[in-house]
Amino acid sequence: MKVIKGTDKGFFAVANDTARQLSHCINNKEEWYIEWGNETLYHDSNHGSNVWEYYFKQIFNKTETYQVVQDYTELVLLKNNSFRSTMNYIYTNYFILNEVTEQKLSPNYKLFEEKNILGVHIRRTDKFLIGMYGTTQKHAPVDLELFKEEIDKVVDAYDYIYLATDCMDAVEYIKKLYGKKVIYNINAIRGNSTRSIHNNFKDLSGYIKGLNVLTDVILLSKCKHLIRSSSNVSVTSLYLNLDLTHLNVNEKYLNDSEKEIL
Known about the structure:
- By secondary structure, the chain is of the alpha/beta class.
- It is 38% helix and 13% strand.
- Strands 6-5-4-7-8 form a five-stranded parallel β-sheet, sandwiched between helices. A three-stranded parallel β-sheet has the order 2-1-3.
- The chain is globular, with a radius of gyration of 18 Å.
């Protein structure tokens, strides 16, 4: 058995590292146990010791004999020799929401099933800090005006815009442009300037931080099309839904290629 630990990265950076570790376990027909502890940014003593279990079910019980692994590893392609298809297979079959999480999120699904919704993901805050957290110039935030240009090309075909962003300025900008057409998680705490939620706001519940970003990823995956920043958040929504079409503004305007993860 392998015990897969977390790291102090953002939620879906940790989740995608875990998915890569799972690809090796699946390929080797090896059992695993996921144990994201207080080494993660989302540990919350009010919700228990294992962050994974705040949101997801375990597939196997932990045994006494195990090997500990964590952090990044290369993905083993399992489906159609495709990175995205393999990640979809892993997320669909092994990232199973627990009952509490499902009860919190499922009331939102009906709107996305009945309406034509455009997803927009805008990543800012600590992405301005080039050279930190692995951020390169190609990952830098794209001007909000360029998001407007891309949204304006397609917005008339949609009933709503679902906006997911870590930045309060982006919320206000998009709301001012598109008014009541914009829907978003009103309960989410957002940063501004270079202050990200996951690396700051230490007094905020780690559980709530994780739940907010998990909500955004799942709801983005239920949109009909996605205009997005380069981010583990928005790329994971593509893993959840193989039919979700998308435009990456970082790729278009900053030449950020994602061939290795899509």
